[in-house]
Amino acid sequence: MPNLADSSFPSSAPPNSTPWTARFRPSTQPSAAAIIASSSPPTLPPLYNLDEDSPDYCPFLIFGFLITTEKLLAWADKYNLRPDGSEWARESAAWSRIQCIPWGRPRVGQVFDLDGNSVRCFMLATNKNTRALGYTKNLHEIYDYYVWLGEDVNPGWYPYDEKCED
Asked: Which of 29, 102, 119, 161 could bond 110 through an S-S bridge, CB–CB 3.0 to 4.6 Å?
């Protein structure tokens, strides 16, 4: 998938003419279906079932984009957030801004990446029930997150890290 995040941040807009979140909103981008259909749709896992004796056993999974420290620092650099601040301050500023998604409430979960590390994830869907699995079909939302986060990889399914519950 192409990285189209730069084209959604107009450089010609006068400072403070519109809220900064409005400048990130994709406007004249190709349709989400055209972008995302070019890659294979996500494979759906079985529904969440913790009965280990069942042949249908499946842990709770989250479908979304991983938000690593490296991605947060790159986002802070790209948008000049706290350029003279510490790494923690830049990461914190980027995290605060990323959560200000202009089209809805961000859904964030803690998951395990492929190496077993616990990382934040912007949730697009879960395997909790068939309705939650259905959110993987929302190509517009997937595309909006993809552009907003400046991603270069597709979202994936990750096991939920239950140790990080509030």
From this structure: 161
Listed by start position, the domains of the chain span: 31-161
Evaluate whether 71 touches 113 at the Cβ level (below 8 Å): no
Which tokens sit at 59?
Answer: 């842990």
Average pLDDT by stretches of 10, the chain with 166 residues: 34 36 38 56 82 86 91 91 94 87 74 90 90 83 81 86 69
Q: Are 1 and 154 in contact (CB under 8 A)?
A: yes
DSSP 4: -
Can you tell me which residue has the tokens 């280990």?
Answer: 52
Report the length, in residues, of the chain.
166
